[in-house]
Amino acid sequence: MPRLLTFLLLAGLAAALWFFRTVAVSFDMFGWGASETVLLVLAWIATALLAAFVISQLILHVFIAGFFDVEPSGLHRALVFSLVTFAATAVVLARFGVDVGSLLTTSALLAGFVGLATRATIGSLIAGSTLDMDRTVRVGDAIVQGGESIEILSLDWRSVTGRKPDGSLVVLPNSSIADNTLEVVRGDAPVRSEIVISVPAGVPPGRVSEVVGAVVGDFAQIDFSRPIAIGPANFDAGGTIKYVLRYWVAHYADRAYVETEVLRRVWYAFQRERIPGLSANLDEELRRVNAASLRAASEALLRQTGSAPLRSALADFFARAGEEGELLLYAPGEKIAVPERLDGCKFLLIDGELRESDHGFSQTPTDGSLRAGDGLPFNLTRRIALNKIAEKLSQHIGPYARVAIEREAARNADLAAVCTALANEIADPQAREAFLRQTREERAPTLRPGVAFGTQRDLSQGLVSKPLMRALGSAILLAIPADVSARDTATAGTGGGVAA
Questions:
Q1: Of 450, 236, 222, 205, which Cα lies nearest the Cα of 350?
Q2: pLDDT tens for each residue of 202-241
Q3: CB of 385 closer than 8 Å to CB of 393
Q4: Cβ(278)–Cβ(270) under 8 Å?
Q5: Region for 347 from its dihedrals, namely left if φ exceeds 0, alpha if ψ lies in -120 to 50, beta otherwise
Q6: Given this model, what pLDDT does residue 372 score?
Q7: Structure pTM?
Q8: On the CB side of 168, how many CA atoms lie within 13 Å of its CA?
């Protein structure tokens, strides 16, 4: 609408000037003098402005937008208007007998002196125009320099303003960007990350892939729609194999954090899975350091146990647990998943805190299907859970569900927060409430040392705590053998004690 109004005003002004000039000449209103020349000049100027406006609009919205599929920016408009206006001015001056050639020669000399004095600024202006035309760098993307991802905050004619991971701002001249090879990371696309892990050569690659894949798949920042790959890269002379782990992070800003946390959690997973390579006396050191915590937690559990046979069995086990008990370590935020060899065992929290992150999950159907009315089984790996949420959301908003869930999953580690944010995408209030009911995650109190619990199978058939819990900080569990915890199944979990 503003463009149409501008066109009508310029066209009306030019037409009025030409009409008034014609009438004035026909009826000799002002005589033959300067008045006619002034009207003629004004009419030509108005016509030149109208022609410049029409030609500029054709170049911007037909040629640039139509052929190059680029939305014209302020820089595009300024350059096009400047060039077209210059050409229209030259035509008007030539019409009135001005020697445009000599004028251009004089202007060229002046422009040469100005160009030499401002060559750096002009270079940045031209580079900024090129970057803007190519759309290679956009606000929200990142430029990788020296291994750091610099988030682009703004783009102008002269420079690019960015923010480093430490929060400091940097200003990069456009010329330095256009003249160098740069790695540009899209802000709206996942970025691949690679980590190298050394594992003893005696561990089968399949086992390494299974353990590490489960660790990586539980991160909130991972793009769950992309594959996670891990495989041997080469052998080391020290009897180890280097594995290359490849996965996709939903947003480039989380790449460094995820790489660090993956290495941390892989160490904890290797400890639980008894993968060699850790310190030989690690188990002995763990029992020594946590002897007091183990004693306090076992006493708390014995006080809660109402069954005499079970109390006796647990007391016998705890008496020798300091030498024989198997301790499992968990990193902060890690899902409580246990090794398959401990199937049937119960677990006592002896240090740290746990939270029921997916409370209210009923027993998984044996065929892997979901019953009507059931909440989503969040005790899957995160990738499977997000896929299930996407399926339910797509019933209400269609294919856009995938885009919405990828965005929210990158922002929130908590699945309940993801579901709450996604519910806002559903316009119908009743459908929104139905979606929230299906995906509601009830929060339970924090669990402290002295609490024991059992295990269950998730839809991926992994062995996880029942109910599913996560470590708030570092946590240590003691595995209670099945023959001890099953000594009195009739009273287990009824009046306290070991939860079934």
A1: 450
A2: 888 888 998 998 888 888 788 888 888 998 988 877 778 8
A3: no
A4: yes
A5: beta
A6: 31
A7: 0.58
A8: 4
